[in-house]
Amino acid sequence: MLKIRLKRMGAKKSPSYRIVVINSTTKREGRPIQELGFYNPKTKEMKFDLATAQDWVKKGAQPTDTVAYLMKNCKEDGTLDYKKKETVKLSKKAQAKAAAEAEAKAKAEEEAKAAAAAEAPAEA
Predict the structure, then answer these.
(1) Predicted TM-score (pTM) above 0.90
(2) What does DSSP say about strands 45-48 and 14-23: parallel, antiparallel, or unpaired?
(3) Average pLDDT, rounded, for the chain
């Protein structure tokens, strides 16, 4: 079975990868059938031949999860369309504080609605 997967290159703690078509039983640094491009996760730099990769998929090659993500987020010119996540991770303490503030705000709005409803029949 053919796989489209990453072949690790680069020095220790500074990985870069080549995107290759290779037999699934071949070791990671083994000889590929075809090289489709490269990907550097540190700089988010990528050059990828998407049309050739799609041809290999039609022939039966299975992309790995990472390569499938790269194929999905690849622009027409072969570069990565990287979108930085806008959500900010909070610590458990900060999450609890934010939840308590949201709960207090919801309770205050509910009390304001109840007070407005109580005044409306009294005026009529």
Answers:
(1) no
(2) unpaired
(3) 88
What pLDDT does 14 receive? 93
Whether 34 and 52 have beta carbons less than 8 Å apart is answered as: yes
Question: 82-99 pLDDT, tens per residue?
Answer: 777 677 788 889 889 999
Residue ranges with strand state E in the chain: 2-11, 14-23, 34-40, 45-48, 62-63
Two tokens at 21?
């078509």
DSSP letter, residue 44:
T
CA angle, residues 15, 17, 20, in degrees to nearest 5: 160
Exposure string for 68-84, b = 16+ CB within 10 A, e = fewer: eebbeebeeeeebeeee
